[in-house]
Amino acid sequence: MTEKTPRLRAALDSLPTYKPGKRAAADGPVVYKLSSNENPYPPLPGVLESAVAAAGAFNRYPDMACTDLVTELSERFDVPVDHLATGTGSVGVAQQLVQSTAGPGDEVIYAWRSFEAYPIVTQISGATSVQVPLTEDEEHDLEAMLAAITDRTRLIFVCTPNNPTGTVLRRAELESFLDRVPSDVLVVLDEAYREFNRDEDVPDGIDLYRDRPNVCVLRTFSKAYGLAGLRIGFAVAHEPVAAALRKTAVPFGVSQLAQDAAVASLRSEDALKERIDALVVERRRVVEALVGQGWKVAETQANFVWLRLGERTTEFAAACERAGVVVRPFPGEGVRVTIGEPEANDLFVEAAAAFRKEL
Question: Mean of the pLDDT values across residues 60-84?
């Protein structure tokens, strides 16, 4: 008699696996990890202290409503408390969004390449991904995305700045796009890297959401705020959408440590600005060096740079690793390289220069 195994959903058979950025080897020559878009700085002033204090109550469940954090966010962004929802990083909230809007037979549209979690969270829900290729300039093709909308479309992800290319959408084109999307289709503006933007023509998604009930904005504490290890993100959306996100959230998913650290981070705005400004200066320096070497670099407003290398992607990543930095390869396409400490950036620029000479 053949022993039966538990029946699992067939949709999982072809589910892509999320690939985190490779870690720096603990005992090898690699020194710097530039593969995960992490903030290279330690926690902001007051954050570690709040986390240590919260750690003394690990025996208790956290505040499931994230009351203090939601109140702080409400005041910071001038939005109603019931327009806010939290989750385990913005990717956790993204999964809640798909679960709230799409199931078998429904479609989710997003640019490609964009954030690699989009196809995963879409397939988990049983919905169908509709991937719209980026333009030659590594930007969203909004006209093609509009043309891809059908009566089965339930959600559209718009990542700006886009991960992994760093490109952004400017006000006129984004507003025109939003005005033409059917009102019953939810548009999610994924702004995980918003704080690094320096293009004044790039709108703040929260300004766009205010009079558009079908617009939701995703933000995270993982990148600029440096809380990647605590897994906390949030969404700003009109009450029906925000309420659905609270329903689909994992109960007690956001730890009290993460909540308190996020509140303390929001209250360290001056220190945050200094760190972001320093990373933006480094970003400019790295881009200028790469352009000077002859690379075509996508215009980035994030804390990373993108090089499209095609079939030489894996080879380039290996060369960087030998030089002392781990980058994020997307085999057959290109590499994404986080802006890190100046020393790390120097090693990467040197590795890129050496590789360029071999082309």
Answer: 98
Q: Is 126 helix (H, G, I), strand (E, B) or coil?
A: coil
Tokens linked to 240: 């029906």
**87 contacts 222 by C-beta, under 8 angstroms:** no
Helix (H, G, I), strand (E, B) or coil at 270: helix
Beta bridge partner(s), residue 338: 304
Intra-chain end-to-end CA distance of the chain, in Å: 60
Please tell me what DSSP assigns to residue 124.
H
On the question of pLDDT at 324 being above 60, the answer is yes
Per-residue pLDDT band for 28 (boundaries 50, 70, 90) equals low
Report the predicted TM-score, pTM, of the whole model to 2 decimal places: 0.94
Q: Are strands 153-159 and 107-112 parallel, antiparallel or unpaired?
A: parallel
pLDDT at 16 over 80: no
What the block records as the tokens of 86 is 């939290």
**Euclidean distance between CA atoms 275 and 232, whole angstroms:** 20
Higher pLDDT, 119 or 20: 119
**Cα separations in angstroms, 116 against 61, 111, 290, 309, 346:** 32, 10, 25, 18, 28
